[in-house]
Amino acid sequence: MISMNEERAVEQVIADIRKHAPDAEIVVVDSSTDRTPEIAEQAGARVVRQYPPQGYGKAMEIALRSGRGDVIITLDCDNTYPASQIPVLAKMVRDDGWDVVDASRLKRKPAAMPWANYLGNRLFATIASVLFQRRLTDLHSGMRAYRKTMIDELDFLAKGAALPVELLLLPIKLGYRVTTHFIEYFDRTGTSTMNPIDTCKWTLWRIWRVANGTHVRKTA
Questions:
Q1: What SS3 string covers 1-17?
Q2: Is 53 helix (H, G, I), strand (E, B) or coil?
Q3: From CA 42, how far away is CA 25, in angstroms rounded?
Q4: Distance separating alpha carbons of residues 31 and 25, to the nearest angstrom
Q5: Fold held by 2-212
Q6: Measured by CB atoms within 10 angstroms of the end CB, which terminus of the chain is less buried, N or C?
Q7: Selection from 93, 70, 78 nearest residue 181 by Cα
Q8: Backbone phi, psi, residue 173, to 5°
Q9: Which residue numbers in the chain have pLDDT < 70?
Q10: pLDDT at 188
Q11: pTM of the entire predicted model
Q12: What SS3 state is found at 102?
């Protein structure tokens, strides 16, 4: 998980993870100025401090590279994603052979998602679907399962916003096994720190970068 001033939600999110995946290692990369890191540690998470903040992408890279398990599952720290789906996603990677499972929020419009966000997500997904010649629904989901060996092989660009876009499209480009699992999406606890203009700019750039770039795996 990546956190910045999520003291209202982090304890409940960690409790939900413990309830549904009691053996999971919980890593929180934190750039907060409030009590989020202290609360997360008290709740049993391993906290990696990124302060002063270096951006979402760098924090996500630290989280992905720091996980010790064979399956890495990302989860936003704002109580919007269902921790109950963690065992389902892990099984799809570990037992069913998928390298990436995208937990898509967009089987239909979620009540918790504003129309502007929904339409923007749909537009970006449509563009990527055309360019990558497959149906994609949610480029920005904060909940995904990745095979750890694949993460170790990927040479992705951590700098900047909208890293989940590249972490979905790059495996597709390189021929990894990628699928979608639809989930519910809930109202967030706390205030979003996302910059929508910056996110849109980086989303379009990442789609173009992967679609038009020549990418290779870091290892054979």
A1: CEECCCCCCHHHHHHHH
A2: coil
A3: 14
A4: 20
A5: Spore Coat Polysaccharide Biosynthesis Protein SpsA; Chain A (3.90.550)
A6: C
A7: 93
A8: -60, -35
A9: 190-194, 216-220
A10: 85
A11: 0.92
A12: strand
